[in-house]
Amino acid sequence: MQLVKCQISDKGDCNIFTIKLEDHTIGNLIKQSLCQDPKVTFAAYRQPHPLQNAIEITIRPKGYAGVKLLSDNVHSILNQVSTLRETFANRVQKYKEKNAYHGDR
Predict the structure, then answer these.
(1) Residue 7: which pLDDT band, with cuts at 50, 70 and 90?
(2) Domain residue spans in the chain?
(3) Does domain 6-73 bear CATH number 2.60.120.260?
(4) Of which family is this protein a member (predicted)?
């Protein structure tokens, strides 16, 4: 797991998080998670420049700390990915056991 550098700035009632070394893949996952959070009024992300390897996530929280909301949602995504990985590995193992008589294809 790599350390992610994050800068925080406030613009009105929004928090803007600049996350370096990330792109649209993570930005979209985080935005989708934040948009489903009832504690968030608005969430968006953008990549300021195509040649920069960084994204900006904007959050307008409903009376909650933006840092906490971002942290909670990222942890939720990590838990979902971990569950998906375990489920996939278990299903692959069951498939291999069921089809062991065929050998490697």
Answers:
(1) low
(2) 6-73
(3) no
(4) Belongs to the archaeal Rpo11/eukaryotic RPB11/RPC19 RNA polymerase subunit family.
